[in-house]
Amino acid sequence: MADKLRWGIVGTGGIAKTFAKALDQSQRGVKQAVASRSQEKATEFAAAQGIPTAYGSYEALFADPAVDAVYVATPHPCHYQPVLDAIAAGKHVLCEKPLGVTTDECKQMVAAAEQAGVVLLEGFKQNVHPLLQRMVEIVKSGQLGTIRTIRSCFCYGLGTAYNVRGDLSLYGGGLYDVGCYCINFSRLAAGEEPNDVSAVWTIGEGTGVDENLAVVMRFPAGTVALFDVGIRSAGSGYAEILGTEGSLYVPKPWAPDPKLAEMELRLKGKPVETIQIADGGNSFTLEADHLAAVVAGECEPLIPGSDAVGNAVVMDQIWQRMHG
Ligand SMILES: NC(=O)c1ccc[n+]([C@@H]2O[C@H](COP(=O)([O-])OP(=O)(O)OC[C@H]3O[C@@H](n4cnc5c(N)ncnc54)[C@H](OP(=O)(O)O)[C@@H]3O)[C@@H](O)[C@H]2O)c1
Q1: Judgement on whether residues 92 and 137 belong to the same structural domain of the protein
Q2: Are residues 78 and 59 in the same domain?
Q3: φ/ψ (deg, to 5) at 207
């Protein structure tokens, strides 16, 4: 393997472009190749992003021995096959969230990576940012007391043009696109898996996907987590963890500011403390460098593919109730 991980990007959409740009700041990775279902799109993307090789099929990229790690940036139900193919070709994989659209898909991908001895990470980029790592430290330290309630929200407004997020055949809707963040956050903060899940939702008339969704989860220790997501509302995103001794409020949990990320620690009887993380970095760059560190055996994965199974169990239940 070369000194730096050589990345192959699969898909040429919005987030593929963001990741390609983030690799420019990477300490441990370089852009090596991009693949599209269309050679023309791949060539155009490669030229715009300064990528040496452009492939007109995903399979061609997996066959390239000069690619060490693959970033899968296709719509949710189109993660499964490229991830399995990349693993079969011996590549390490960073797959966008959610890893799979069913629990079974996630289990299969995790098992394949284990068997092949490659690293598989799920792209919850915020979890590798120092802000969320600090959050986890605070929760684990016990300063907040017993965690009682976890609240979060992720809403945005889709435009009228076609978007994969409004396409039912591509598992569109808020649940898989942004609900996965809130479920992941709640499970991370609770430190266990929920054993009771309730949900209410509104299906869009034109789209057939969940456009408004509110979920409540109860965890075995008694913690209750609630969140709401929406794809047709004004933008909003925050998270809050409330314990018996204090709370932690994270105003921008899903995309921590690379220059100055903040959260508020509110402990009983003490003034509010603003925790600041200066120059924490671009979360996509951190994610790429984290994969390199895991590959080098320097740390345990913060966003292991195996964690996707817990998220998928919750999403499966809600999806079945909405569309089953
Ligand atoms: N971590 C984050 O912050 C973040 C943010 C946004 C999105 N995401 C995730 O990234 C994934 C992609 O989202 P996106 O916003 O980049 O989507 P997008 O702009 O629509 O791009 C998706 C790309 O996937 C490829 N593709 C393969 N099969 C496709 C199909 N059947 N229909 C449409 N495109 C297909 C296309 O590339 P080719 O035609 O070139 O093959 C397309 O450009 C999603 O799973 C999403 O959840 C993550």
Answers
A1: no
A2: yes
A3: -105, -35
Q: How far is the CA of 10 from the centre of ligand 1 (A)?
A: 9
**CA 65, CA 46: separation in Å to the nearest integer?**
18
Which of 90, 124, 158 is where one domain is finished? 124
User: Model confidence over 157-201: pLDDT tens digits?
Assistant: 998 899 999 999 999 999 999 999 999 999 999 999 999 999 999
Give the Å distance between the CA of 311 and the centre of ligand 1. 20
| CB-ligand 1 contact for 173 (6 Å cutoff) | no
Query: Domain check: are 143 and 163 in the same one?
Result: yes
| pLDDT value, residue 1 | 55
Give per-residue pLDDT as tens, 148-157.
Answer: 999 999 999 9
Coil, helix or strand for 241? strand
- Strands ordered across the beta sheet of 260-267: 196-203, 210-218, 224-230, 147-157, 232-243, 246-250, 260-267, 273-278
| Residue 2 banded pLDDT, cuts 50, 70, 90 | low
Q: Which of 10, 17, 76, 96 to mutate to test the pocket of ligand 1 (most atoms within 8 A of CB)?
A: 96
- Supply the range of the domain harboring residue 19: 5-124
Domain contains 174: yes
Task: Looking at the structure, tell me whether residues 145 and 226 fall in a common domain.
Answer: yes
CB 15 less than 6 A from any atom of ligand 1: yes
For residue 112, how far is its CA from the centre of ligand 1 (angstroms)? 23
Cα 25 to averaged position of ligand 1 atoms, centre (Å): 22
Instruction: For residue 15, give the ligand 1 atom closest to its CA.
Output: 16
- The CATH code of the domain that includes 30 is 3.40.50.720
Token pair of 206 as six digits: 């034109």
Domain count, the chain: 2
